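Researcher: Structure prediction, please.
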Amino acid sequence: MDDLRSLEKLLVARMVRFNATVCGIVTGLVLGLVVFSATVWLIVKGGEVVGPHLALLGQFFVGYRVTLAGSFIGFAWGFAVGFAVGFFVTSIYNRIAAFRERKAQANH
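Model: Predicted structure follows.
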């Protein structure tokens, strides 16, 4: 019975790991599409002053403006930042999972 519990803990520990590259790509695509969509939405919406708050992203994303060309630049920056954050968070998560797995194996 104890052997089955050890096997179950090992399977759970191995199953909770993620591919950092895939998580980075997915996070990057989501963030890039959010910036792109928000920019295009504000362009279509129009108005006297178009997106003053979103234009503040230009302080961080070099070349970004609330224009059609800026939406593509914003997508690229959003993808890069999202990829970096997703990859980093997933890598840290996997290291913690590996540490917990080694700790669980040492206890048995």
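Model: DSSP finds three helices and no strands in the chain.
Researcher: Thanks, that helps.
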